[in-house]
Design brief:
By secondary structure, the protein is of the alpha/beta class. It has 2 domains: 193 residues, Vaccinia Virus protein VP39 (Rossmann fold, 3-Layer(aba) Sandwich); 101 residues, DNA polymerase, domain 1 (Orthogonal Bundle), CATH 1.10.150.170. The chain has 14 helices and 9 strands. The strands form 2 sheets. It has a 7-stranded mixed beta sheet with strand order 3-2-1-4-5-9-8, with helices on both faces. Strands 6-7 form a two-stranded antiparallel sheet.
Length: 301
C-alpha cells in the first residue's frame, strides 16, 4: 500500500541518520504513506514509534502494530502530545516535509494543476481555510505576500491584479478558474515551474506550513535526548533555509550562532554532515520527486 501512496525518498540515508537503536523511542512527524515509519519499525525490538499526521487518508494507511502510536494532529503540537502520552525524551525525530504522491495524484484534494478539481489544498480536511478562500477573500497586500514569500515569485503583480479582477465578477472555486488567471502570467518556457510556485504558495498559506515547521523545530530542543538525532528532509528553499539555520544555531531565524565569553558557539546540536544529502542517480531515475529533496541531520548535544 505504501508504494502506491508515496515512495519514501532517501530511505536508507534517513534510517542511517536516525542511528536507530532496537529499544529506542522515535517520532515520525510526517507519517504520510508510512514508508519511512514502516522501515523504522523493522529496526525496533521493544522500542516505540510515535507518528503524527493530521490527514484522514494517512490515518487509514496506518499499520496494525502495537509499537506504533498514531497522533492525528499537526506536528506543531509535538511536545504537547508526547507529554500526554507520557514520554519525556525521544531518541530520534524524522520529518519528511514533502507533499505525498497521493495528495498530488488525487484530483479532489486540489494540490496539483495537472487535474481539474476544487481549489482545496487542505492537509486537514476539518480546517476551514481553503485555497479558494484565500483567492476570494485575501486583500491585495496579503496576496502579494504569499506569492512573493511562499512562491518566491518576484514579479507577481500581474497575477495578483488578475485574481482581484476576476473575483469581482466570478469567485474562484475550481483549479481551472485559477489557471485561467495564472496562465497568461507565465514567463516564456516556464509554465510548469511558474504554476508549481503558484500552487506551492497557496498550499503553504492554507496549511500554515512555515509557522508549523518553526514551532516543531523549536520543540525538538526539549524533547530530544542527548545523542538523539533530528533528521529533516525539505523540498524547497524556504523550508531548507529554516532547517539549516535551526540545526546550525538552534534558532530558525538566525544564521549565526550566539557565542560565549570565550568566543565559543552556544548551540544545542552538532551537524552530522556539513552539506545536505541528496538523491543519487539511481533514485532520481526511479523517483522523480526525489530531485528537489535535501536531507539534513544533526545530533543533540
Amino acid at each position: 500500500m505504501e508504494n502506491a501512496y508515496h515512495v519514501p525518498v532517501l530511505l536508507n540515508e534517513c534510517m542511517e541518520g536516525l542511528n536507530l537503536k532496537p529499544g529506542g523511542i522515535y517520532v515520525d512527524v510526517t507519517f504520510g504513506g508510512g514508508g519511512h515509519s514502516n522501515e523504522i519499525l523493522k529496526n525496533l525490538e521493544g522500542g516505540r514509534l510515535i507518528v503524527f499526521d493530521q490527514d484522514e487518508d494517512a490515518y487509514q494507511n496506518r499499520p496494525d502494530d502495537e509499537r506504533l502510536i498514531f497522533v492525528r494532529h499537526n506536528f506543531r503540537f509535538l511536545k504537547h502530545f508526547l507529554r500526554y502520552i507520557g514520554i519525556d525524551k525521544v531518541d530520534g525525530i524524522l520529518a519528511d516535509l514533502g507533499v505525498s504522491s497521493h495528495h498530488f495524484d488525487t484530483p479532489e484534494r486540489g494540490f496539483s494543476f495537472r487535474f481539474e478539481g476544487e481549489l482545496d489544498m487542505r492537509m486537514n480536511k476539518q480546517s476551514s481555510l481553503t485555497a479558494a478562500g484565500v483567492l476570494n477573500a485575501y486583500d491585495e497586500k496579503s496576496l502579494y505576500r504569499i506569492f512573493k514569500n511562499y512562491g518566491e515569485i518576484k514579479h507577481c503583480g500581474k497575477l495578483v491584479r488578475g485574481i482581484l479582477s476576476r473575483r469581482d465578477s466570478r469567485p474562484f472555486k475550481m483549479i481551472s478558474d485559477l489557471l485561467e488567471v495564472a496562465e497568461p502570467c507565465v514567463p516564456a518556457r516556464e509554465k510548469n515551474k511558474f504554476l508549481a510556485k503558484v500552487f506551492q504558495a497557496l498550499r503553504i498559506e492554507v496549511n500554515r506550513e512555515m509557522d508549523a515547521l518553526k514551532d516543531m523545530l523549536m520543540q525538538t530542543k526539549d524533547v530530544l535526548a542527548p545523542g538523539g538525532r533530528l533528521v529533516v528532509m525539505s523540498y524547497h528553499s524556504l523550508e531548507d533555509r529554516l532547517v539549516k539555520n535551526f540545526m546550525k544555531t538552534g534558532d530558525c531565524e538566525q544564521s549565526q550562532a550566539e557565542q560565549d565569553f570565550y568566543g565559543k558557539n552556544i548551540v544545542p546540536f552538532v551537524a552530522i554532515s556539513r552539506k545536505p544529502y541528496v538523491a543519487g542517480e539511481e533514485e532520481l531515475q526511479s523517483n522523480n520527486r526525489s530531485r528537489s529533496a535535501k536531507l539534513r541531520i544533526c545530533e543533540k548535544l
